[in-house]
Amino acid sequence: MMLSRRLPARSPPLSRCLSSLRKTPLYDVHVGLGATTAEFGGWDMPIKYPLGIMKEHEWCRNNAGLFDVSHMVPVKITGKDRAKFIESVTVADVQNMPAGMGSLSLIPNEQGGIIDDCIVTNAGDHIYMVINAGHEEIDLPHIRKHMEAFQGDVSLNIVPSGLLALQGPKACQLLSKHSSEDVSKMSFMSGKPVTVNGVPCFVTRSGYTGEDGYEIGIPVDDTKKVFDALIQDPDLELIGLGARDSLRLEAGLCLYGNDLDTTTSPSEANLLWTIPKSRRGGGFVGQERILAEIADKKLVKRKRVGFVGKGPPPRSHDKLYTEDGEEVGEVTSGVYGPTVKKPVGMAYVKKKYMKAGTKLLADVRGKKREIVITKMPFIDPGYYRGE
Fold this sequence. Notes:
With 387 residues, the protein is α+β, with helices and mostly antiparallel strands. It is 20% helix and 31% strand. The strands form 4 sheets. Strands 10-11-12-9-3-13 form a 6-stranded mixed sheet, sandwiched between helices. A 6-stranded antiparallel beta barrel has the order 14-17-16-15-18-19. The protein has a 5-stranded antiparallel sheet with strand order 5-6-7-4-8, with helices on one face. A hairpin with a 2-residue loop joins strand 10 and strand 11. The radius of gyration is 21 Å and the shape is globular. 46% of the residues are buried.
């Protein structure tokens, strides 16, 4: 999380730094409700509310939590050749994706590293993508560069939106109270237009917590109207980015900038499942390295793994060692997992140490603490898979 990063030497006063950050349409509401805010991806975002990170986490696991994720960037791709183009800049199989369905995908660079991970949805007459916070200055120039060279009919537009994530086992019954359409039978990763509290929205059944839930794209000026309606429900609490981090880690979900970056390949990140067999013939940016590593596993020297520990959780950049003192990896994310009641995290390790049950030592603030490589997710996900 950005919270752990120190301001650089000779930085401007904190008040001036925060004043230059972008704010979501609900920023003043969050402050009024007692939120603690901090910088994330160039935005001043709510990290926690008076309930506190631990209780927010537990509430979302057992009830329904509402996250303001309006710092993320929805984009709309149109034109008759839109599917072919998106397949050239992502690893998604858009041409075989049914209307109303989506998937997690990757935007690779020319070297086969990962520029970003994103949700790609076939919205019927267009493709709907959601880009990570602070990444539009990286992702969009990359996409537009390839669009200029593309021989076909395609265009891209940012969709000015508020974006709310409603997550937890009670998310469905809560959203159903406010929706004109039936959202209960929406399958996991599906998306469709839904009227919420009288406002036309685009709703996907997805999220970043490991729980059932929805992400609701709302016209900017109507964001507060939808928010005000949802927040009245006694089964709902507001959840900040602090609990969002522990929720996503327990669910084994990557955070770009921590667990993924421009040097990391899909094979190293254990994300080959995002590349369907239909795409393993290539036709996308960075295919040389990506396909070579699929064909020859010996080319991959490190792997993303999960781990559990004891005591203070290892944090990003903490080194991992064998009992003999050999450095074999590095932590990319680590928190205390309130649901599993122990430290959990992700790391990259040399391949020979990736097997579940392998014991390593993490250098946590100068002390060696044992961790155990563990399969992810650390919880049983609550995604809706149908009755």
